[in-house]
Write a structure and sequence with these properties.
The chain is an alpha+beta fold. It has 13 helices and 24 strands. The strands form five sheets. Strands 4, 5, 6, 7, 8 and 13 form a six-stranded antiparallel beta sheet that branches. A hairpin with a 4-residue loop joins strand 4 and strand 5. The protein starts with a strand and ends with a strand.
Length: 499
């Protein structure tokens, strides 16, 4: 399927959309004030060892300390390439030998200066996650210093091409370095791959020289900005063109591509339309849809997405779809249609961590199997590493997806200041009964005149439908209750005071 990349650049932010068949499947945004730290390399200092968690707080020069787990210091090759979302899962990975009872105190000490790379941006209240295993991604290769290993992207499926690329890389790989062959290498000439390796080796040498000259904490290397990363990481052989709407960035991008990836030069275009680029391609509509909780399916069914701190739950419902045959067929068709939309929304929203998909319960095992296989197939297009467990008897699929950056919703939105992110507030009736209990408590202490100040929706209910309840309290406790409304109060807030 032909793909294209659209880039919208403004003074405040850069937005990148990857389209497949004219539909947005991946979206990235980078704001000047909070650009991603992923890929940055630091000379850092260990602040505090946490033996109980086998981890450490590390100072990389930011306001919030970063986090380093023992598995990111003493790990096997599977822990490598945290930035690379395209690895060959069938590779035989050789575990690094070592004592199984080794602790973090055996590896690092407080005050020690270490070389680290950011593998995950700060997410929510968590600081950046670090790894001591550095990876430098190029266009065709990823360089892994101090590792003897050759890996290849699982997205390169042609066996003859895999053998050709492994042979080329095996011949040029210097001793003491590991290399991962990226998807973009498919069909590339040996000379292009060699140039990429030479550039990465020179970059690593520059980083190491800088490391010896500075004290911790210091930034040694910053990854490319989003515009340049789009060429390096997203320009697969399927991408037919990249269109950018900033003439200044277009010229910079052409110089960058001409120097590093000359064969891609013909694919870079400047957008010259009169409409805004994302409006012209209908992308703003897709983005608005990607921020909604409910997504309708063409049949009339729908999916609901709820994201929490620990996991994301996606629920499939038949909605308005009633079908023309028996119930099992209606359910099966809804689930099958939902599979594509769920996979699409996971990619577009960049949902990570634990994901539970609750398909409608199917009685026939063969239908459950077909839905599961369809979902696995739909997720193959995803560049992020994911693991999918088999569908359960009640239609649940559990999966994990690698989370490097915040999801789209948490990048573009913030918790509702009214409900504080709960998604709901107490009803006026519930609040009325809370107020009744508060009045009784005060009245027992001998209050003569009580004033209730509440949000208009609550005050109106107290003065109308629930007035009989107030009058009963007044008679029972011999008090006088006055209700006042205050439009500035949150619906859940109220004051009960004694005059």
């Amino acid at each position: 399927m032909d793909s294209e990349i659209l880039i919208n650049v403004t003074r405040e932010e850069t937005r990148v959309a990857l389209l497949e068949g004219g539909q947005v499947v991946e979206f990235y945004v980078e704001r000047k004030q909070d650009a991603s730290l992923v890929g940055n390399i630091y000379k850092a200092r260990v602040l505090k060892i946490l033996p109980g968690m086998q981890s450490a707080f590390v100072d990389i020069g930011l306001e919030k300390a970063a986090f380093l787990y023992i598995t990111d210091i003493h790990a096997d090759i599977e822990e490598y390439a945290p930035l690379i979302e395209e690895r060959d899962d069938s590779l035989e990975l050789v575990a690094r030998k070592g004592k199984t009872d080794i602790t973090i105190e055996d590896l690092i000490q407080e005050g020690q200066e270490i070389l680290v790379q950011v593998s995950k941006d700060p997410i929510g209240s968590k600081g950046a996650r670090l790894t001591s295993y550095v990876t430098l991604p190029g266009r065709y290769l990823v360089l892994m210093p101090n590792v003897e290993h050759i890996g290849i992207s699982r997205r390169i499926s042609n066996e003859a091409e895999r053998i050709r690329l492994k042979t080329i890389v095996g011949d040029i790989k210097p001793k003491g370095y590991g290399l991962i062959i990226r998807t973009a290498s498919e069909g590339s000439a040996e000379e292009d791959i060699k140039k990429d390796l030479e550039f990465l080796l020179l970059l690593w040498e520059t980083i190491m020289k800088k490391k010896d000259k500075v004290s911790a904490p210091s930034l040694l290397y910053s990854d490319l900005d989003l515009v340049f990363r789009s060429v390096r990481d997203l320009m697969s052989p399927d991408v037919k063109r990249l269109v950018i709407d900033s003439e200044e960035e277009y010229e910079k991008l052409k110089d960058f591509v001409k120097t590093n990836f000359e064969k891609l030069l013909d694919k870079i275009e400047l957008y010259e339309g009169t409409d805004l680029i994302f409006d012209a391609y209908g992308i703003e509509v897709d983005l608005s849809r990607a921020l909604g909780r409910k997504v309708w399916l063409k049949s009339g069914g729908y999916i609901v997405l709820d994201q929490t701190e620990a996991m994301t739950v996606i629920d499939v419902n038949t909605g308005k779809f009633v079908g023309k045959e028996e119930l099992e067929d209606t359910i099966f068709k809804t689930n099958l249609e939902a599979v594509k939309e769920v996979a699409y929304q996971i990619r577009l929203r960049n949902l990570g961590g634990i994901i539970i998909v609750d398909f409608i319960d199917m009685e026939k095992p063969e239908n459950r199997e077909r839905v599961f296989n369809a979902f696995v197939d739909a997720m193959k297009k995803d560049r992020a590493k994911n693991t999918i467990s088999h569908i359960s008897e009640i239609g649940l699929i559990q999966m994990t997806r690698k989370r490097v950056r915040e999801s789209l919703g948490r990048t573009l939105c913030e918790p509702c200041p009214y409900c504080e992110g709960k998604g709901f507030v107490k009803s006026p009736k519930t609040l009325c009964y809370e107020i009744f209990r508060k009045i009784k408590k005060i009245a027992r202490s001998g209050g003569g005149k009580i004033v209730v100040t509440a949000h208009p929706s609550v005050a109106e209910l107290l003065s109308d439908e629930e007035r009989a309840g107030l009058e009963m309290i007044e008679q029972l406790y011999n008090v006088k209750v006055t209700v006042r409304e205050n439009r500035n109060l949150h619906q859940e807030n109220y004051e009960v005071s004694v005059l």
